[in-house]
Amino acid sequence: MRKFSYLIILAGILIMLYPKANEWYNDWQQQKLLEEAEQAYSEITPSPSPQSDLHKQYAEVTQLLAEESSEGDLAKATEAPAPEVKLGGKITGIIQISKINLKLPVLEGATKANMKHAAAHMKETAAIGQVGNAAIAAHRSRTAGRLFNRLNEVEVGDTISVQTKEQDYQYVVYDISIVEPTDVSVLNGHNDDKILTLITCDPLVNPTHRLIIHARLP
Question: Residue 87's closest CA among 127, 120, 39?
């Protein structure tokens, strides 16, 4: 009987520790990607211009953001550890926002696997640093400081750095908005401007909208 009680206690401890262990694992994956990005960048191929199916791609990205947020950072105690998701995108660069102490690897392709531990460049949009609108999406984790958790603190005039193999691009924020998840107009370009658009969920808990940060190269 005493042995059974010990097993019950041990099981309880493991259940309590699992969410934290899962968070540590996600942070480890993010750091691993960041180190790879800092050591050597993958070759970058120009991204195609936005196509007629951009609405569909954007809808998929915003749905991924909503799904992750609704799940929360703490896994359910009854769930088994999720299998490791194999990353499929090349490392495009590193995004940094000094004001909010953000530094993340950017992977090519806004897929569920890539967005688990990093920011992701929508390959259907313009390439980083090029004419057009380059979109980068990331989850707004409920863990303080993780992924785009603090993106709401960014203000007009702040600088967003995106370092690629070719160059370190310094974008300046010029517009911040909260939009409906279906508002694909946030990906529109403007003449010859080189625009960067950051996308995440809003509000932090039970999000119904998307937080959009627009920046451009001077």
Answer: 120
